[in-house]
Amino acid sequence: MRSAKANFARYLQLIVKRVFDIAASTIGLVFFSPLLLLASLAIKLESQGPIFSVKHVYCYNNQHVRVLRFRTRSHGDVTIGGHFLIRTGLDQLPMLINVLRGEMSIVGPHAYVLPPPQLNDQTAPTSLKGPLRPGLVSLEGPPTSGELSRKDADLSYISNWSLFLDAKVLFQQVISKHMYFQN
Question: Cα dihedral sign for 16, 17, 20, 21?
């Protein structure tokens, strides 16, 4: 059992994490706003329908989130612009809105897709129980034969979470050859 001092320190870290999420998502949305506008315009010109698609994922505390992404398909087929958005990862930029709304975090455990019949049964996997929101980037196992499973990586992240671990995971993602946004 944690002491009151340890609980207070953890609470302060969670506040700093949330402030970072708000600042990073706001800066990201402002910085990428020209790309967001161009992608939105391209989607509208290329096909009919909404600009965003919605994917339901498990969230912290047994809730689910409607994650926003740019729509990349029309009548089941990936559009020409959709190929570009997927290949560059730009299809996932709208998730910064989810971070800003407090439904996701920049760094956190993986989000788990909800199959349609389970949308009303909001029981999250054990790895998502706790105060940490699903992240745009997540802890990944090393690329070896003993690779961590998604659930193991999430459990490791949750049990060892700190601001330092968040910084390490984010730094590793940024310096990798390609930015990997899970989901």
Answer: negative
